[in-house]
């Protein structure tokens, strides 16, 4: 794999752009037509953009406003909700707090993790289940929590709809993944990338090359470019330029396991060469922790065997966190 931080500039169409308005239709044929386009993108790239997704633009703008206000605070205020204080991996992650690319410097980004809100007396919390618990909410800005909770709910609904489309694309019943979607272990993550420094250490970048852990990632980007996707055909990185009004969707490793790699979990990274502060908001839809992920029979050719053993969502995530946080 080419190591240089350069990447090819292509048109926005480098990632398939799919109008998903048909997924909201009462007509099965409309939903199937969109699902077929999504399936083609999953097989070829593992990344695509969606338009007409139904998420309120005002809510999206509010999320960016609150994220920018939080990250602009003094370090002491952010550290008051440091992720290290949480048993459920919630809260603030300081600059260079994660290494996503083995052998590379720590990622040049700071973040904030938000999950499903669970009280201390919830049986799952009392049992010490992985990534289960209460969120840490900053004292300022005061609108931070309600904005993020509304947005998280909107993302859960959109991700569930997209999982229905994935089922249709595999010629499965539309509700095939309903059990996976129920009580999903979802994570909303706010990210702030300072500009790539001119004197960066060798290999230093905003976010190292990686594939995502879970099911679906729904990425909201600001206007500043930085996301780069590995193109297996040219064996080079391509810029995924922000397209106003869209989400970038990519498949995580669990979908690849489920489909025996028919659907791709593709390497990507972030290099903020915009010269400006960059903000993005990925939503990781990871599924029900108890759900078993094993090769779908429709993804096995005659005589073919599964490439991966069966694993629960929770088991898979524990291993992925172990790898990236040591």
Automatic annotation (TrEMBL):
Residues 183-287 form the Fe2OG dioxygenase domain. Keywords: Ethylene biosynthesis, Iron, Metal-binding, Oxidoreductase. It is an enzyme of class 1 (oxidoreductase). Its cofactor is Fe(2+). InterPro entries: DIOX_N, IPNS-like_FE2OG_OXY, IPNS-like_sf, Iron_ascorbate_oxido_reductase, Oxoglu/Fe-dep_dioxygenase_dom. Its EC number is 1.13.12.19, 1.14.20.7. One of its GO terms (molecular function) is metal ion binding. Pathway: Alkene biosynthesis; ethylene biosynthesis via 2-oxoglutarate. GO terms for biological process: ethylene biosynthetic process. It catalyses: 2-oxoglutarate + O2 + 2 H(+) = ethene + 3 CO2 + H2O; L-arginine + 2-oxoglutarate + O2 = guanidine + L-glutamate 5-semialdehyde + succinate + CO2. Pfam families: 2OG-FeII_Oxy, DIOX_N. PANTHER family: 2-OXOGLUTARATE (2OG) AND FE(II)-DEPENDENT OXYGENASE SUPERFAMILY PROTEIN-RELATED. Belongs to the iron/ascorbate-dependent oxidoreductase family. Monomer. This is 2-oxoglutarate-dependent ethylene/succinate-forming enzyme.
């Amino acid at each position: 794999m080419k190591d240089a931080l350069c990447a090819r500039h292509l048109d926005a169409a480098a990632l398939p752009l799919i109008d998903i308005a048909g997924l909201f239709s009462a007509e099965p044929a409309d939903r199937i037509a969109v699902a077929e386009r999504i399936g083609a993108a999953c097989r070829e790239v593992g990344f695509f953009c969606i338009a007409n997704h139904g998420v309120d633009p005002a809510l999206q703008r509010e999320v960016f406003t609150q994220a920018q206000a939080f990250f602009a605070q003094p370090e002491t205020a952010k550290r008051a909700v440091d992720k290290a204080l949480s048993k459920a991996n919630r809260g603030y992650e300081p600059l260079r707090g994660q290494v996503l690319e083995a052998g590379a410097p720590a990622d040049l980004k700071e973040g904030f993790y938000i999950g499903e809100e669970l009280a201390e007396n919830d049986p799952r919390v009392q049992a010490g289940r992985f990534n289960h618990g209460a969120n840490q909410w900053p004292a300022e800005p005061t609108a931070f929590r309600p904005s993020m909770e509304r947005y998280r709910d909107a993302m859960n609904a959109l991700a569930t709809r997209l999982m229905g489309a994935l089922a249709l694309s595999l010629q499965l019943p539309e509700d095939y993944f309903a059990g996976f979607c129920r009580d999903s272990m979802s994570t909303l993550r706010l990210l702030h990338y300072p500009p790539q420094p001119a004197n960066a250490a060798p290999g230093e970048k905003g976010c190292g090359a990686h594939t995502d852990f879970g099911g679906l990632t729904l990425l909201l980007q600001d206007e500043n470019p930085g996301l780069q996707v590995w193109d297996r055909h040219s064996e080079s990185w391509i810029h995924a330029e922000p397209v106003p009004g869209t989400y970038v969707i990519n498949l995580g490793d669990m979908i690849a396991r489920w489909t025996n790699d028919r659907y791709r979990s593709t390497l990507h990274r972030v290099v903020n060469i915009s010269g400006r502060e960059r903000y993005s908001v990925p939503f990781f839809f990871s599924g029900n922790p108890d759900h078993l992920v094993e090769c779908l029979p429709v993804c096995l050719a005659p005589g073919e065997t599964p490439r991966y053993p069966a694993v629960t969502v929770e088991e898979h995530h524990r291993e992925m966190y172990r790898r990236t946080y040591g």
